[in-house]
Amino acid sequence: MDYPGSNSRPHRRSVSDCVDVLGQSRSPAFPYFKDWNFEFGSNLRPKICIVSSTAAGLEQILPWIFFHKVIGVSTFFLFVEGKAASPVVSRVLESIPGVEVIYKTKELEEQQAKSRIWNETWLAKFFYKPCNHELFVKQTLNMEMAIVISRDAGMDWIIHLDTDELIHPSSAREYSVRQLLADLPEDVDMVVFPNYESCVERDDIIEPFTEVSMFKNFDHLPIEAYLGNYRRAIRGNPNYFLTYGNGKAAARVQDHLRPHGAHRWHNYMKAPKEIKLDEAAVLHYTYTKFSDLTSRRDRCGCKPTKEDVKKCFMLEFDRAAFIIASTATEEEMLRWYRHHVVWTNKALSLKLLKRGILTRIYTPMVDKISTDTLQGQVLVVC
C-alpha cells in the first residue's frame, strides 16, 4: 500500500551502503549508527511497531530507535515535521531498515481531514486549539493512519511513543518487549506500561537516555507510601508528576482498532481486554535538559498569561514553564529550573529511594550512544 507522504522505494539502502553516514568519529559508539541489520525475520513473533510524531533531530531519534530495536521492535512509522523532516535528517532515517518516514504533505492533510477521528466526541474539546491541543489531535490522526499501515505490514502489536520515551520491559526474560508481549494470553487486547518519570540530578544534562538514572514511580508503589510522601515528592509543583502520569499502551493489531488519545487504544466493536503490567514501564524523560524550557516556548505562539496558556497547554506545569521561559531572564530561568525540576537535595532523594517513590534504572545507559558522533559531522553522502 502506498500512502500519502511515505517513502516508497524499490530498493531500501542500508546505512552501510553509504560512503559515510555521520562522518568519521573517534567515538566507540559510532558503529551503532553504521549497522542496523538486526535479525527480525518473519519467523520472529510477535512483530511490534512503534508510531511516533516527531520534529526532533538525529541526536534524539537515533538512540531512541536503536534502543527499541535492541529490545525487539521491528518497525517504526515516523510522522515527521520540522527538523526531522529536513533533507539531512530524513535521508538518514529512510536508510535505516524497518523505518518508514511519513511526511506532512498536502495529500496527507487532505486524507486526514476526512478522518472519522473528527467525529469522536471525546476528542472534540481539543479541536481547533493551538500548541499541545493541536499536537494531541495530530497524534491521534497519525495513530489512526498507522493502524492501517501496520495491518498491511503484518504487525501484531502497535505502540505510540514520543521520542523522549523508552519502553522498559523489566519483567520479561532477556529484557525483551517481544518476549513480554509473546507471553501474554491471546485474549489480551491492550497492555498498559505504567509511567516512570525522569528525575534529573543536574542542570547540564546533554544525553538524557545515558545520563539520567532516577525515576519517579506511582503505579508500582503501595498507596500508603504514596500518600505518606506526597508533599515531599511534589516539591512545590502542581502535581505528583511534572507532566502526564497515565503511561502508554500497546495494542494488539486487530479489526476495528482505534486510537483513544495519545496514550490509549480502543475498539469500535467491543470493550477491549486491558491489563496493566506489574513491573514493566515506560520511561518518560521529560524536561531533562534546561533547553527544554526554551524549545517548548519556541514551538508555541501563545501569550505568556495565565488565561492564554490555558488555551495552549493541558498541564499546569507546562503552563508555568512556558510563562517563565517567556518572561524571565536566563539566570531567572535557570534558578526556576533548579528549584522545580532538578533534584539537588541528596538526603531527600535517598529517603524517597528507600521508600520506593524514586527508583534507579540503569539499563538504557548500557547501550551508550554519544551525541559526539552527531555534532559537527557531515551527514550522509550516498
TrEMBL record:
**Which GO terms fall under biological process for this protein?**
cellulose biosynthetic process; response to abscisic acid
Q: Which domain of life is it from?
A: Eukaryota
Name of the protein in question: Glycosyltransferase family 92 protein
Organism per entry:
Gossypium tomentosum (Hawaiian cotton)
